Amino acid sequence: MGVELGGIGRVLIGAAVALLVLGGLFLLLGRLGIDRLPGDLVFRRGGLTVYFPLGLMILLSVAGTILLNIFLRR
């Protein structure tokens, strides 16, 4: 019933690295101007702006699926 701390540590380090890579990717995409793609929804009312990046999420989903299929193919 003991918890293996080494395994938990590896998971936490892996999650931190994944978040670091994801943050860097978002910074890079913002500089390239990919943050406003067709399909993104922006609602403005008075002083409130709500932004739904649907186009970017679809693009990232397709890219992630392709990368995972390449790297995890058996």
UniProtKB/TrEMBL annotation:
<feature type="transmembrane region" description="Helical">
    <location>
        <begin position="50"/>
        <end position="72"/>
    </location>
</feature>
<keyword id="KW-0472">Membrane</keyword>
<dbReference type="InterPro" id="IPR021320">
    <property type="entry name" value="DUF2905"/>
</dbReference>
<dbReference type="Pfam" id="PF11146">
    <property type="entry name" value="DUF2905"/>
</dbReference>
<keyword id="KW-0812">Transmembrane</keyword>
<keyword id="KW-1133">Transmembrane helix</keyword>
<protein>
    <submittedName>
        <fullName>DUF2905 family protein</fullName>
    </submittedName>
</protein>
<feature type="transmembrane region" description="Helical">
    <location>
        <begin position="12"/>
        <end position="30"/>
    </location>
</feature>
